[in-house]
Amino acid sequence: MTATNPWLIAPLVAIAAFMEVLDISIANVSLQHIAGNLGASPEESTWILTAYLITNAIALPVSGWMSEYFGRTRFFSACILGFTLASLACGLAPSLEALIFFRTVQGLTGGALQPVSQAILADVFPVARHGMAFAVYGIAVVAAPAIGPALGGWITDTFSWHWIFLINVPVGFILLALLRRYLPDSGTPSPENRKPVDFMGFALISLSLGALQYVLDRGQTEDWFASNVIMTMSVLFVLAGSYYIARALSQPHPIIDLSLFRHRNYALANLIMFFLGAILMGSTAMMPLFMQLLLGYTALDAGLVLSPGGVALMLMMPVVGRLAGKTDPRVLITLGLLCTAGALWTLGNLTLEISHEQLMWLRVWQASGLAFLFIPTTTVGFSGLPEGATNQASAMMAFMRNLGGAVGIAILVTFLTRITTMDHVHFAAHAAPTSPLWHAHLADIRSLVGNDTRALALIDLRWTAQGQLQAFSTGFRGLALVFLALMPAVWLVRLPPGTPAPASAGH
């Protein structure tokens, strides 16, 4: 697949990926508004997110096979059209049930936009320019989660929740028209050259990944393995996933080509991408929670603190893209790990007196480090792969990043909840009724609020806040240690052909 000017194509496919990734996070801050407007409970409204995430998780890894079967250009255009129409239907949905159904369609059609966009860029740009190509893509998929909450809050407050979906409609149709003009047709395989459809493989992937995403999204809400539903879904994930892997290793034309993991760089890149997704999405979820729960920020204010981090990513991505082809990628990835880990460790020293500006600059510091991770990791992952593997490779790499994000958020939310409860119990256990210090403290609070009931309630709130602060601090430090633990894996990467080694990089 060639094009006279790939820079005409790059921003178009990046916008498609941006639009899809944005829809994962933009609806989060609007759930209360949607629930109130449609007469649903807060618990019921979370299915707006769950339905999207489950179908998105299923669509991501199979998009490579779909591109090869139907023809990548036609499949890509069909997905954009489906995503746009589903967005229109979501914005006009008259009930929660209708909205959840259309979010399911939106997740299915949007799931392919990330990996197919990346595969197109990998093919239309020469290998020497992959760094810059992936910088454009990186701006889309890494910056979108950072600005999603702020944009969603602003749209909901200024207009209504309907517009967080309807905003996709004009963008989608304009994008389709421009892609029809500038994106060359990759062709469609003739019926005799098409790979046979592995219907059993599709069913196993859908069951396994759908069950996994349900467990990750609903686990904490349903108290994990204390719930029969979570137990059943976990068993379904393991059984269906194991059976699929066993079949795929013996199938001549599997839906997901697991043989790509025999390439060391590709396997290591997917490992790094998994943890990159966990750190990016996990920290993006933790910071707004900290600001809203402990500092009293509104959702919009918290989003505005995160937004400069997105700007920093956009500015740093082209810089790293230029360095990617001239510098040992292991050096760039190590620099990114150190930078991001340093920012996260500093966030672990949070206090309730931290200012808006301090939080903003810490986010900028963290985001700058992430820029040094995404591009060289992607470039390394594609190096040395056989010709024609870009569709499958990009699908799995995008899936690993999203899976890492889902796992990271699930673990961190559970960790924050459990540690907060444990610390609260610990503080309460040390409030001995016979202690003179406890009675003196209670008397001081009572003098401020008027009676024992109010004083005890205020003390309980303080214990909860202190427990939450400890949990957030430990969580951020844990993320920093995970990144530092990845460093040995980085130096197992083989240098792509033509990349200068560290000793000669400056000559």
Question: What are the main properties of this structure?
Answer:
mainly alpha, Growth Hormone, Chain: A, 76% helix, 0% strand
Written account of the structure:
The chain has 507 residues and is an all-alpha fold. Among the domains are: 1-186, MFS general substrate transporter like domains (Growth Hormone, Chain: A, Up-down Bundle), CATH 1.20.1250; 200-256, no CATH class; 420-472, no CATH class. Helices cover 76% and strands 0% of the residues. The protein has helices at residues 6-25, 31-38, 42-45, 47-70, 72-91, 96-110, 113-124, 130-158, 163-166, 168-182, 199-218, 228-248, 264-294, 299-324, 329-347, 356-382, 390-429, 436-449, 452-485, 487-490. The longest helix is centred in the C-terminal third of the chain and has 40 residues, at 390-429.
Distance between the termini: 35 Å
- Top CATH class of one domain: Mainly Alpha
Described by the principal axes of the CA atoms, the overall outline is: globular
Oligomer description: single chain
Topology:
Blueprint: H1 6-25, H2 31-38, H3 42-45, H4 47-70, H5 72-91, H6 96-110, H7 113-124, H8 130-158, H9 163-166, H10 168-182, H11 199-218, H12 228-248, H13 264-294, H14 299-324, H15 329-347, H16 356-382, H17 390-429, H18 436-449, H19 452-485, H20 487-490
Helix pairs in contact: 1-7, 1-8, 1-10, 4-5, 4-6, 4-7, 4-11, 4-17, 5-6, 5-7, 5-10, 7-8, 7-17, 8-14, 8-16, 11-12, 13-14, 13-16, 13-17, 13-19, 14-16, 15-16, 15-19, 17-19, 18-19
